Amino acid sequence: MRELVEVIAKALVDNPDEVVVTEKGSGKNITIELHVASSDMGKVIGKQGRIAKAIRSVVKAASSKDNIRVDVEII
Measured between alpha carbons, how far is 26 from 31 in angstroms, rounded to an integer? Predict the structure, then answer.
């Protein structure tokens, strides 16, 4: 899941070198933290959080296949 979030985030931002994705937790509950440059924060969140919600939806759909719960936090 970490790689999926990283690919999506790098495609959205102007500074793909500053994208850092970390994965915390194990088992059925995993938290993925997405760090981007402050100038790219708006591009990752989107208007009214639409892009962030779309990223979370894609990750949720991909993780449901493996029967795990993945939360995406944008920091």
Answer: 9
Q: What is the CATH number of the domain that holds 63?
A: 3.30.300.20
The whole-angstrom distance between residue 62's C-alpha and the CA centroid of its chain comes to 12
In degrees, rounded to 5, the angle at the alpha carbon of residue 50 between the alpha carbons of residues 47 and 52 is: 110
Tens of pLDDT along 36-70? 999 999 999 999 999 999 999 999 999 998 899 99
Cα of first residue to Cα of last residue in the chain, in angstroms, is: 17
| 72 backbone dihedrals φ, ψ, rounded to 5° | -110, 120
Q: How many domains does the chain have?
A: 1
Domain residues for the domain of 12 are 2-74
